[in-house]
Structures are given as structure tokens and as C-alpha cells.
Amino acid sequence: MPAPSAWRRRAAPDHLIAGEDCDSYSGAMFESHFQTFTDEANGAHGAERLSRLRDELARLKLDGFLIPRADEHQNEYTPPSAERLAWLTGFTGSAGTAVVLPRRAALFVDGRYTLQAPAQVDVKAFELHNSGECAPDRWLEKQISAGWRIGCDPWLHTPAQLARYERAIKAAGGVLVRVETNPLDAIWRDRPAPPAGAISIHPPRYAGEGADSKISHVQAALGKADALVLSDPHAVAWAFNIRGCDVAHTPIALCFALLPAKGRPTLYVDRARLSEPVRAALSFLDIAKPEALLRDLRALGAARKLVRFDAATVPARLVQTLEKAGGTADVGADPTALMKARKNKAELRGAAAAHLRDGAAMVEFLAWFAREAPEGRLTEIKAAEALETFRRATKKLKDISFPTISGMGPNGAIVHYRVTETTDRKIARGLFLIDSGAQYEDGTTDITRTLAVGKPTVEMRDRYTRVLKGHVSVATSIFPKGSSGAQIDGFARRALWEAGLDFDHGVGHGVGSYLSVHEGPQRISKLGGVALEPGMILSNEPGYYKTGAYGIRLENLIVVAPRAIKGAEREMLGFETLTLAPMDLSLIEPKLLSREEIAWLNAYHARVRKALTPLVTPATAKWLAGATKPIRN
After folding, report:
1. Range(s) within the chain of domains with CATH label 3.40.350.10
2. Are 121 and 90 in contact (CB under 8 A)?
């Protein structure tokens, strides 16, 4: 999902529910830290920093350099010390690449950021390109001359990424040079220190399975491989039942691990990050300094071992080290990904509990919004702050699971909109979209609701209802075992297609268990080729976006579950909805809904009302009764 928020955290309004101080939960430090960083890293510095980088490249006898928005693990959320692209260019989006040459420099971003990038970057220093139309490797091939040396940091690219650049550079007669130290680090004088937060144990009551059992399952899945390198910190967290606080919004520790086909795993991390109780709980593995990983890979290479790597996250540097020493690299799928995606009974109980708690906080917010929005004093930032305050009042919030998308009117039509103090729009008549989530120790949430402020137009009601029809179609779908998300994707679009409409994002992404709000490999998308299995949690979020006017998205989290059908000849699956919060009845046109769709909505609202009424204030309970009343066509 989207990059870290660029709006500054403020004190909670006095009239909201009293909660803990913002700094009392783990996520607060990341918002304030990242804001300090992004205030400094703006486009005004671009030309000067670009000049310093070119001087450093000349000293290293390099004609160019690749700067991806990535850390050593290809994380969605990266620590401030890894935000090299933002420091150099001013661009703070979650995906992008810069290419610096002697006389030209370019920034490549995807379609989500074609509006954001020009607002943040000095366009006189960096030319901007849509990576979907002009890929950086193809651009580079046309710009360089024979004999040019283009540098890269092999810790920040996967082997497949570097292979694409190498082909393009070689075709132009140049050479790709893998540097030992990143030249940006030499000129970034006030670069923040890498994170070194404490590592904690994820309790068995939430994990549902011991680390020893998980390790045995992974070892059994290695086939002919002698070892597996865990380069994805989410995989390390899941396999060893640990959590960390190294990046915003996702409780992971940035570290690597080596899992042999037989014997004890090794976790590469500074021992100072492990308390005595945590070390005792991790007695099943060995602990080594982070730099020891290269030494151990050389030893495996010298012994001619076959080592499996995760193609999506492994730094090219690790594969290069093994192969140079004589080993064989098997770069492919990490077997932990599917294991992690299939939630066990304890994780599913935790998810239900987290959604019940989060649903109560969400309903308190919705009732508050219904009272406050007509007064005309709210803004996008104030609404986002309010929702976070209600979540903090649960006393269970660890962090928000991603920066809240809070968009009024035309801002809601920007799918990955990030409110800033510059763009902060007053909430007035029209449609307001809020997409948010929370991290609780027992589960991760993600919910989107679109709310009418004032009387909606006929068109708004038509579009909202068509999105709702798609949402219900996914929620009620039944499909044979082995079906993928690609086969479900069209269910969410049919009502929009019938009106000549569509949306450009996928219908749903996977969600972790007190881990990433974006978890693979499962997804509901045209590109979702992985079979959906019981226990997988996904989002269900069709939408519609009218550029310059408004956006609509309705998102619940759902879990894949078996479906018993009398006389069925095949094993069938379906979805159960986890999220609990009402849809906006004022935006629904009942005449567009079938009898079955109305029955689903009324049953869902009855479930929301029954589950949440005992958990909210009397005033909110009264509002909830009206917000969930049955409808008829």
C-alpha cells in the first residue's frame, strides 16, 4: 500500500475520547521521525545533492548510478536510514528509481505517483518518467555510450532486477559495476543511524504454533536444497515467532536468517537487541552478527552446497557471494510465504477479536463524523487524527497498519492519496473516502468506507451501489478448491462494467497476522495466480474513481473458508467477512440491488449491530441502530 504519511502528527482534539499519549505506542515514533526526514528531503535540495553525487561518482570512476527506493530486504516500508531516493530527489513515494548520469538524471515512478512526483522533485534537476511507459533500463540503454561504467549497490537490488539493467547496459556497450559501498552514503552526512530496536517474542496464544514446528515444516519443503536464506523479515518474524519495531506500520526486525535442511537455524542480528528472556526463548537457534552471513555463505559455497533464495527479496549481493565461492543458488519462491498465508486457528481467533475491537473504534468514529462533518469544521487531517484517537482508546493499538488515506471530493479520486498540510482539504458537501487500518498484537485490520456529506447526487448513489454490488458478489462467491484470485476478480467489476465503468487496481491483497497489511502471495487480481486456500485473509475492495470529483471504495477483510454444499461433486470454498462496520445507507440505491444482495446487506448490518452495540457508548449505539436499519427495494 502507500508510502509513509507526510502529514505531521498533532495532539488529539480535546473533545475526542481520551486515550493514551501518541508516543505511548510503538508506531508514533515512526511518523514523527519520517516527517523530520521528509521536511529535510525536499526538491529544493535536489540540484545541490545531485552535484555532490556526480562529484563522488567521478572520484569512483563511474559514469552513472542506479538509486532504487529500496532497502536490503525490498520492504514496502523502509527505515529513514534507507530512504536514499527521498534524500536525493525529494520524492517520498513507496516505489521509484532514479538514474544519475553525467549530464542527465531521471526519476521513474509508476502511475500512482505521476501527480505527487512533480510536486516534490526539482524538475530542472530530474526529468520525470512514468515507469509503465518508459522503464529505467530501456531509458538507460538509449542514454549511455560504449565503455560507460554504471554503478549499482547489489544490496538494494534483487538478481532479476540487476539482470534487466545488465542486459540493457551491455546492449549499449557499457558495463554494470557492483560497488562495495554506496556512494550516496558518503555524501549523506547526516544520514540517520540504521534501526536497532528491541526484538520481542510473539506469544504462543497469538502465533498458534511453535517455532520448532514451523522450522520442521520449512525444512521438509526444501527438497534438494541444503539451506534456505530468509531475506524477507516477515518470513523471519513468522518462522521464529518474533516481532520488531524497525520500520513504520509493520512489526518486523530488519534481519536475515539461514535455515539449513537439517540442524539449527542462525539468526543474524546484534545480540544487544535481544533481552535475556528473548534469548532464552530463542534457544532453538544460533545468533550471529549480521556481517557473519557473508562468511557463512562463502563456507556453503566452498562446500558446493545448493542454497535456496527468495527471488522477491534477496539482495543480489548474497547470491553473488555464494556463487563466487563455488555454491549453487536456487532463486525462486520462499516456501514460508504460503505457510504464513494460511492462518491457523489461533491466528483466526485473533483476527476476529482484533476486528471486533477495531469495529467498535470505527463505529465510534463514524458516529462522531456524522455529528461533526455537517458543522463544516473538519479537514482530512483532523478526520484521520480522530480515527486514530478512537483506536488508541482501545488501549490495544500497537500502530496504524499503513498511513491513513483521508480524501475529500477530488482527493478521494486519487487511489493512493496522501494528505499533507498543503493538500489538506476541508470536509464539505460531497463524498469523503477514508481507508485505514490498525496493528493489534492479535491481528491486523484494513477497512475503507465512503461517506456522504450532505445529500448525494443521483450519480453518486448509482456508482456507490454498483461498487457495493461488486463487494457483495465477492463476499458471497463460492468457488472450487484450486481457484485463484484472478478467477474472482471479475465478480467485483460486473455491475460497473455494465455501465461502462471500471477501476484500475486489484480487488484484494493478502493480509498478515500482526504483520504486513500487504501479504502475499494470495491476492484477488487479474494477476493473482495463486490458489486461494482456507485460512488466507484478503481484502475485498472494489472502487470507482471520477477524476477531479470523487472516489468510492468499500473494503472489508475476508477469510477463505470451506463451503459445504449438499450433493457437491467437488470441494468448494467461499469467504467469511471479518470487518464489522456499516455501509452508508444514504448512498445506496435499493432499486439497483437484487433481493439476494439486499438480504446480504441486511444480514451483515444486523451482525454489525449485534456485535458492536455492547462495545460502544449509548450515543453511538443509538446512531448505529439507525445506520444499520434494514432496507427494501
Report:
1. 41-187, 200-340
2. yes
- From CA 353, how far away is CA 348, in angstroms rounded? 9
What is 342-627's CATH topology? Creatine Amidinohydrolase (3.90.230)
Q: Give me the mean pLDDT over the 396-415 stretch.
A: 96
Half-sphere exposure of 101 (CA within 13 A, CB side): 17
What type of residue is 330? D
Joined grid coordinates for residue 513: 497476522
As given in the structure block, the three cell numbers for residue 558 are 475476508
H or E, element range at 463 = helix 458-475
Q: What is the CA radius of gyration of the chain?
A: 25
Query: How far apart (Å, rounded) are the C-alpha atoms in residues 81 and 355?
Result: 33
Give 158's DSSP letter: -
Do residues 581 and 608 make contact, with C-beta atoms less than 8 angstroms apart?
A: yes
Mean pLDDT of 566-591: 97
User: 378 with 372: CB under 8 angstroms?
Assistant: yes
Residue 1, C-alpha cell as written in the block:
500500500
Answer yes or no: are the C-beta atoms of 285 and 274 closer than 8 Å: no
Residue among 68, 254, 63 at smallest CA distance from 161: 68
- pLDDT computed for residue 305 by the predictor: 98
**Strand ranges inside 159-226, DSSP E:** 175-178, 200-201
Specify the pTM.
0.91
* Model pLDDT, residue 41: 43
- Locate 75 and state its grid cell: 520492504
pLDDT tens-digit series, residues 604-615: 999 999 999 999
Is residue 598 classed as helix, strand or coil in its secondary structure? Answer: helix
CATH of 41-187, one of 3.40.350.10, 3.50.50.60, 3.30.530.80, 3.90.1150.10: 3.40.350.10
pLDDT at 196 over 80: yes
Band of residue 42 on the pLDDT scale cut at 50, 70, 90: low
Question: What CATH number should be reported for the domain whose range is 200-340?
Answer: 3.40.350.10
Task: Identify whether 456 is preceded by a cis peptide bond (ω within 30 of 0).
Answer: no
Q: Where in the chain is the domain with CATH 3.90.230.10?
A: 342-627
